[in-house]
Amino acid sequence: MSGDDVTQVIELIRRFVQHRISAEEFVSAYMEAWKRLRDAHALEKVNPYVRRALNVLFEAADSVEDPIGGRSLSSHAGELHVRVATVLSVIDNVS
Fold this sequence. Notes:
Layout: H1 3-17, H2 23-39, H3 48-65, H4 73-94
Helix pairs in contact: 1-2, 1-4, 2-3, 3-4
């Protein structure tokens, strides 16, 4: 994995914020992409603020993928969107 892979993950985040993909599509694709970055040690090579932002998104995606209390992913979509948009703003400001 390379810097291009991180760029692709950020583009995935951007597509979700722009409502071009659903929450379900985002969560599935993001979790898979984040795990690939982690396994390739690519997260260790990015700006520490960007790395923390990507980790926060993984935690957010993970929490809505397997919700506690029986709420479905679709009921978390709005909250997830706000969190992802906020994190994207941080990434844009530090990269």
